Amino acid sequence: MTPLLSAHRHCYWLVPLLCWVAVQACSSKPDRSPSIGFAAEGGSRATAGKGATAQAGRESAVGGALDAAGTSGGGSTGGDAGAVALGGESGSAGSGAESGAAGSWNAEGGQPTAGTTQDGATPICGAAQVWVDGAALAISTPAADRFGSITPDELSVAWATSSSGVVTVRYADRTTNQAAFDAPRSLVGAFALDRAAFSSDGLRLVVVNADRRGFTEFTRASRDDALGAPGIGPFAAFEDYAQHTMAAGNSFADVLLDPDDKVLLYSEYGSGVVDTVHRTRRLFSGDPWSVGLPLVAAELQSSGAQTRRPTGMSADGRTLFFWDGLLGIERAGFFDFPRDSFASVRDLGQLIDAQPNADCTRLYHSGPGVSSLDLFVATAH
To answer: In the prediction, which pLDDT does 344 show?
Structure first.
């Protein structure tokens, strides 16, 4: 008997074993971590119609249980009819017998039918908060203050002002979330009048370039330090995209880092672009960002010059705050986890560019002030 045939006779048992392993892997219950499940986008990207997104690259490795085939349309809207709350994810695709086991959204407002979502987690911003008009922050300036971001621990804040066409990005720090902010510091550069987005640790600040064709990142070693020299940092892919692929009339805006520093939201505007809000994800903090895909939800679609801008994300990734330019109000969209669509949306009024703290008990935002827009913090009751 030849050596090759002998080896085959001794290894015949590997075939059923490998089949058994494959069956077990396919039948295992998927991970249902409490993130939205944004996948890392790399390699080729394709959109299968308005309701479904097909992604390639690294998406299978990260982000929890994204149901890429179930991102259809927007959910129901509760408007001002009481306090909209997240009680569960009844009927999620692929949930099988679990469907409806832990309550469901009350899309008409009021109380949820159960206190936790299907995967056992209580959404941070899912309670029926009533946001009391905020107190103005002493760091507000006489100019119109465009709120940028607050770190989840509330120790670092950033915003932008404009005078005679010159945009100034300002930031301030403090030692506790009950103390007043220290004297603001400013950055020098060519910026768009847009969001300045802090990382959750307050050590990196991302701004939109003046030409709106890329992003710039400023870094520092500690919060005691001033932010250093500007650089492209992990945004090189956006520079390449703007130079070689992005339509000439399109532009970037609304940069937003989520609290875990692994999801980036931003907008891409242009003629005929309806799904303007984009997202991308990286596996580790510090990895380079890849260019993202549209976040398809009816409530986020733009109409001509009237846009919907992402402004803040809850720490658990389940609630997206956004400014609705069509209605002229801030809104909060509650994701139908693990789908990308909203199960419900709540109107928040004139809390412009709102962003929550870590436990969603405070919303920092811009609003009408003494002479123009000022910076405020609203408290949940």
So the answer is: 87
